[in-house]
Fold this sequence. Notes:
By secondary structure, the protein is α+β, with helices and mostly antiparallel strands. 35% of the residues lie in helices and 28% in strands. Strand 3 and strand 4 (54-66) form a beta hairpin. It is globular, with a radius of gyration of 21 Å.
Amino acid sequence: MLYEKATSFSEVGAGLSLWPNALAALSCLGLENPVMACGRWEDQGAIRSSRGEVLREVDNANLMIRRSDLQKVLLGAMEDIPIVLGARCTGITGNAQAPGLRFEDGSSSEADLVIGADGIRSAVRQSIAPHEAAPRYSGLCAWRGIVSAPGLVDNAWLSVGEGLQFMAAPLPEGHVYWSPLVRLEEGRWEYIEDHRRYLLDRFRGWHEPIPTLLDRTAADALIPTPVYFRPPPKWMTSGRVALIGDAAHPMTPDLGQGGCQAIEDAVVLADCLSRSSDIAFALSEYQDRRLGRIRRVVREARQLGVVMAEPRHVLARLRTTALRSIPAGLTEHRLSAITAREAFEAQLGVP
């Protein structure tokens, strides 16, 4: 049984990058080809300066897809699974060893196993770890949008400078997914009246097509998304409760792995459960297989994010020098350890 807080499955989010590790996980579900058919494959990308100068060519090798298109494929594969909409979970009943679910309307449901996939402010997590610290604010706020702009962005790029970042990537049918990261005091986004004007001011003087992308995006689509994270996790299960995705390990977006790692969580957990009727043993296996890898991804995403958002002039110049001089083979090898198909497949049990 799947309980979902939304009252309907409507268009959600903006764009999403699916790296080979996530596609390998989707392949285990027979969904890689349907997902590939909805997105646009990117082989090459670049890191640029605020003036548009290419600082480094990047071997991208990932699929750009609308979140709504991915959602449709996943829902299509769940036709036989009961889904209850409008069911906002407020926590678990009982305890982690014998959990049930409690909902906002006062109802509850018994369960042999609870999988908390309820996001960064997870009520399931709060129930089993009530004294745990809240997620940390990264100091950065993101905006995300999709705009029709045929021919404006041919391949993915990330521009950096002055403590700001702006990413753009092509989607199918001439659409472009864009997302800036802006250093902002926590809560300050609530006082911005005109988000497009704010972003145009922050990125004034930056290279095209950044101003054009912002101009062409509908004003009501400019919604801020503050970036929160947790330190690398020390646990992902408790009793008969398992956490996946942002409920388990919210991370900064700098490696493009947030959605990818959530998909990995789900597939590895399903693999563990399919191999043992002992739920406690299966959850222990899930945590053992995932914890080391996810700790690395969370840590490296945060480290990269700090470097790319560095506003101080001297350190920013060092970053530019490093981007130009570090051998491509070295960075690609490090990235491949996270994003390669084999990196995911190594977590699967022996048939």
